[in-house]
Amino acid sequence: MTVECEEQDSVLIMRIARVSKRNAINAVTTLALDAAMNQLEDDHSLRVGILTGAGEVFSAGTDLRTGSGPATPRGGEYGVVRRKRTKPLVAAVEGPAFGGGFELALACDLIVASRTARFALPETQRGVVATSGALFRAMRAMPLHVAKELLVAGGELDAERGYHLGFVNRVSAPGEALTEALALARSVCRGAPSAVAASLAAVQQQLDAADDLGWAATATAVDVIRDHPEAAEGIAAFLERRPPAWL
Question: I need a surface site. Which of 43, 75, 83, 147 has the fewest CB within 10 A?
Answer without folding.
Answer: 43
